[in-house]
């Protein structure tokens, strides 16, 4: 069973998109965070054999259920570092019968959809699949079994992708690298996204809707 998971945090003002909030305010940044998540879930809602939204905090499950809809199972994130939470979720998936697991965040709502199918296909012959992001992290991680790559990572820094690749290569793992994508963390990223939606993704209705939401939120700030 091919499982696709999205890690997500509730859109509380002041707690998400803090760098973007410096330019557009806490409320606008939180609204955009929610729109990015909604767009991501809608665009990949038919991918894989099963889909899970891995959310935090636990008491906001109802809000995530309303946003995600019936196509997505829900799982509360465990405690600890991001590495701890990734390991716990992957262990749950494999215990439930998953064979290949892809994990995404909600910071790249414009992710290339064809890369999801490519990642699942590559996991048939590779140990890991990674999608690098421009900030030095990764926007997608794919594994078909647990590998010792999550401990002692400086999460949220520009070294995450390279550290992970170095560990995989040191273990002689077969790794496939997907095309780069960029996270929407700053107002500069937001301007870049707004310019790319009509040019490179003109037929994607979900992204066109996101573009309208971005324009509305920026106009209201």
The named CATH superfamily: Spore Coat Polysaccharide Biosynthesis Protein SpsA, Chain A
Helix/strand-derived category reads alpha/beta
Give the helix level as a range of percent. Answer: 40-55%
Tally of separate domains: 1
Terminal CA distance: 44 Å
User: From the coordinates shown, what is the CATH architecture?
Assistant: Alpha-Beta Complex
Given as residue ranges, the uncertain stretches (5+ residues, pLDDT < 50) are none
User: Rg, please?
Assistant: 17 Å
- Order of strands across the biggest sheet? 3-2-1-4-6-5-7
Number of strand elements:
7
Structure characterization notes:
Helices cover 44% and strands 17% of the residues. The protein is globular, with a radius of gyration of 17 Å. The protein is an alpha/beta fold and 221 residues long. Helix 3 links the parallel strand 2 and strand 3 (73-76). The mean pLDDT is 93. Helix 1 packs across helix 2 (26-43) and helix 7 (187-200) runs antiparallel to helix 8. It has a 7-stranded mixed beta sheet with strand order 3-2-1-4-6-5-7, with helices on both faces. The protein starts with a strand and ends with a helix. The chain is built from 8 helices and 7 strands. The protein has helices at 18-24, 26-43, 61-68, 82-95, 114-122, 160-170, 187-200, 205-220; strands at 2-9, 50-56, 73-76, 100-104, 128-132, 138-143, 175-177. It has a single domain, classed as Alpha-Beta Complex (Spore Coat Polysaccharide Biosynthesis Protein SpsA, Chain A), CATH 3.90.550.
